[in-house]
Design a protein that fits this description.
Blueprint (H helix, E strand, L loop, with lengths): L3 E6 L6 H18 L5 E6 L5 H8 L4 E5 L16 H6 L4 E4 L2 H7 L3 H13 L3 E6 L3 H5 L3 H16 L7 E4 L13 H18 L8 E4 L7 H5 L6 E4 L6 H12 L1
Parallel strand pairs: 1-2, 1-8, 2-3, 3-4, 4-5, 5-6, 6-7, 7-8
The structure holds 1,3-dihydroxyacetonephosphate.
The site of 1,3-dihydroxyacetonephosphate has 14 residues, from strand 8.
């Protein structure tokens, strides 16, 4: 059985002192209470803290992640961070196409696919986020939306597609305290798995994470679904006790 992947996404939260304290608590918890070998752990942090967090997690088994990457290689793109820059800080995972970037920065499916390509070419694993809005959910368009979003990434990345991580994050579940039910999430994950299977014989290898109000109380049931291979955790990744509970649920 493949190890589950639990990835935190701090979003625009944190600070030098708070990061240090949180990572210290997490490392203590991982060292004393858990067999972390049974779950992979990553933390996707704001770009300005990559250097700090790289130092703090060294040798701890927590992998470093970023929250975005430029679709351009280098050049006149003020404010952007290239894949090779992330690589300089030993970044292993990079979130692309988070709904907050699609909504607030107008990122398109094609741009998200290019970002995934940049990450792969630099030897990093893109965590490709897909998910429907509340109105798309209520009008019965969930499948169409997530398939369209994933199709763009499959199209641009061809045979490398088994190297990505997919995160199903229903927009209506993010930060709302209202998670998708395990059945609802499993249904969408099965659709995504089938789509990956049509593109690669390695589809079973791909981690498909669930994200959206995953917490210490609901993680075990969500993670017990056959196609839920881990979680992408926002709010609960900022609290060490909660994040450790989710890792423990994944390590079972
Ligand atoms: P929450 O866990 O806070 O709902 O956020 C989910 C998310 O967007 C992770 O990328």
């Amino acid at each position: 059985m493949k190890q589950k992947l639990i990835a935190g996404n701090w979003k625009m939260n944190g600070g030098l002192a708070a990061n240090k304290a949180l990572l210290h608590e997490l490392q203590q918890g991982l060292a004393h209470a858990l067999d972390s070998k049974h779950a992979q752990v990553a933390m996707c942090v704001p770009a300005v803290y990559l250097s700090q967090v790289q130092q703090l997690v060294m040798g701890s088994g927590i992998n470093l992640g970023a929250q975005d990457v430029s679709m351009h290689e280098h050049g006149a793109y003020t404010g952007e961070t290239s894949a090779s820059m992330l690589k300089d800080f030993a970044v292993r995972y990079v979130i692309v196409g988070h709904s907050e970037r699609r909504q607030n920065h107008g990122e398109t499916d094609v741009q998200v696919a290019l970002k995934a390509q940049r990450a792969l070419s630099a030897g990093m694993t893109p965590i490709v986020c897909v998910g429907e809005t509340l109105s798309e959910h209520e009008s019965g368009h969930t499948e169409d939306v997530v398939k369209r979003q994933l199709a763009a990434v499959i199209h641009a990345n061809g045979h490398c597609i088994s190297e990505i991580v997919v995160a199903y994050e229903p927009v209506w579940a993010i930060g709302t305290g209202k998670n998708a039910t395990p059945n609802q999430a499993q249904e969408v994950h099965a659709v995504l798995r089938a789509q990956l299977k049509a593109a690669t014989s390695q589809a079973e290898r791909v981690h498909i994470l669930y994200g959206g109000s995953m917490n210490a109380a609901n993680a075990a049931e969500l993670l017990s679904q056959p196609d839920i291979d881990g979680g992408l955790i926002g709010g609960a990744s900022l609290k060490s006790a909660d994040f450790l509970c989710i890792i423990a649920a994944a390590a079972r």
